[in-house]
Amino acid sequence: MKKIKKNGYSLVEIIVYLAIFTTLSVLVINSFVIVLGAFNTTRSNRNLLESGSLAMERISREIRQASSVDIANSVMGSNPGVLQLNSTNSAGTTMIMKFVVGNGALNISKDGVLIGNLLGQNILVDNLIFRRITTTNGEAVKIELTLEDSGSKISRLENFYDTIILRGAY
User: Fold this and answer.
1) CA geometry: angle at 97 spanning 96 and 103, to 5°?
2) What is the mean pLDDT of the chain?
């Protein structure tokens, strides 16, 4: 009598292998989705913090160099805020720097000429308030800025605050 060799797998073995493969595949894909979500959140946070820090630094530098805040042309304490600063360049020529929000962008203009948006791509201004602080010794401007990342699926807001004393006011 000849022995018949059995080659191949039984139906039960195939089902067990498929169940193990499916479980591992689901775990790997789920891990991949979680990693991508964490990457997008980290990228959104970085974009918000970079844009906010750069914008606040530019506004702070211009306020420090200003000789006065023109409140007749500025809307102080309102949202979205407008800030107009009077200063002079190294040649002694009078300059007017203006910060204004338009369509979610934080625009800067010099002597009426638009320089551009201070924020990065997909970053929008949610709130911007300038408050003037005057004392007998000088004046300062308090800034409250809230930014939103519009490029992310997760809506995230970041707040920035600063108080800047004008040149010669200390």
Assistant:
1) 130
2) 86
In the β-sheet with 68-69, what is the strand arrangement from edge to edge?
68-69, 82-88, 94-102, 105-110, 113-117
Side-chain half-sphere exposure of 17, counting CA atoms within 13 A: 6
Structure token digits, residue 86: 């009077």
DSSP helix/strand/coil, 104: coil
Say whether 107 sits in a helix, a strand or coil.
strand
Cβ-contact 108, 85 below 8 angstroms:
no
Q: Could you give the C-alpha distances from 153 to 27, 37, 122, in angstroms and in order?
A: 23, 10, 12
Question: Is 119:99 a contact under the CB 8 Å cutoff?
Answer: no
> Within its chain, how far is the Cα of 54 from the centroid?
10
pTM of the model: 0.75
pLDDT tens across 33-91, in order?
Answer: 999 989 988 888 898 999 999 999 999 998 888 888 876 455 555 666 788 888 887 78
Cis ω for the linkage preceding 80 (within 30 of 0):
yes
